[in-house]
Amino acid sequence: MTTELEAASAGGSERPRRILVVTLDQITERMAGPAIRAWEIASLLGQEHDVRLLTFGRAERGGPGFEVQHVDVAGFRAQVEWSDVVVVQGYVVATFPWLHAIDRVLVVDLYDPFHLESLEVERFKPLARRDAALANALRELDAQTVRGDFFLCASHRQRDLWIGHLAGRGRINPLTYEDDPTLGSLLRIAPFGLPEEPPVQQRHAIKGQVDGIGADDKVILWGGGVYNWFDPITLVRAVDELRHRVPDVRLFFLGMKHPNPDVPEMRVASQTRALADELGLTGTHVFFNESWVAYEDRANYLLDADLGVSCHFPQVETEFSFRTRILDYLWAGLPIVCTEGDAFADLVEREGLGRVVPPEDVDALADALEHVLVSDVDRDRYRAQVAVVAQRFRWSRALSPLVEFCRAPHRAADWASHGARVAAQHRVQQLWWDVVTATRHLRAGGPKLLVERVRMRLGRG
Q1: Are the CB atoms for 366 and 220 separated by under 8 Å?
Q2: Whose CB has fewer CB within 10 Å in the chain, the N or C terminal residue?
């Protein structure tokens, strides 16, 4: 059976589509990476289509050329039924089982390997909680890979990762292979991007403004949150060593408190504060911005820095990560010092954007920071290269595969056969999940709680 959408696409029509972009993050003045990406996707697609950016969190700002709406669980289906195309990220598909049966084109944004990230987010929690968090992530990933019609990822490394997942779920099959042996019609690279216009500084936000940082001091910027998979500890120790050779060095952490109140401060953030206090660096050479900088205000901070830094541990999350803070460094024309091991470190080294050092090497990191801060010739050369490379990451270029797809959206080549099989499998899995849930309710509150939960479930339809 051919849908109205497919008929229009087959006829070469490029009429405006009704597109939902869905995120769990809050849409406010202070947004983290997932919300920023969803915002930019909606902004770009809104130039050609009727776009709604939906969030299950707070919605406190309007978008240029698209609607921004808060949605709750009860109202989500009506929004999906309004749409032609749904673009999702994060924990959405497994939460709404009916997405497997509804005839809408589903784009799955896999730029964040959240199942690997969960290993670090929960690393210091009890094992039972860690197992449950990973199981939840894998359940969502399983739902996404079996249902999606078109997938996005952030890098070539991630493409290899997600091809493995898609193959494991049977999505790389004779139908999708015959449709496109490169698999480009199923999975495309669409990295995080940069604004089209260069940043403009409206005011000084760090130099001469933060107590302890002078107008002429040399500022090293940590341009994002402090999470367990990062290594600010080695960086603080490197600054402790470097301050004796470069007395006016200052390290500024841009955001210690995540804008989403559901994300607690992680252990490494507390350890970083404690180390800076122990070494007597807090307020003299190391500075913590306690709040999260507003999205439109970040240029004032970036342009007050002399270089951007990113340090992480050698682990599997690093290998498949895509550090969005480094994109801000590119946007602001900052030389970069970073730890080897991720896709951006390869880019920094290959393109001559700064210096790359081994993980957890205090001396090497201190030397690299000193070199960039004091060598005017090399710093200017790095800046020139950064300006060239930044052009590749403009949002219009980064998201061009999604823009192209949405002009003629279609279900995956295997949706008729694979989709019917998956829907049947999903009904069996849902029955099993209902049994598990019912057992848990019986144990927690007896038959009365079970009856109450069943009534709530039936009430939701």
Answers
A1: no
A2: N
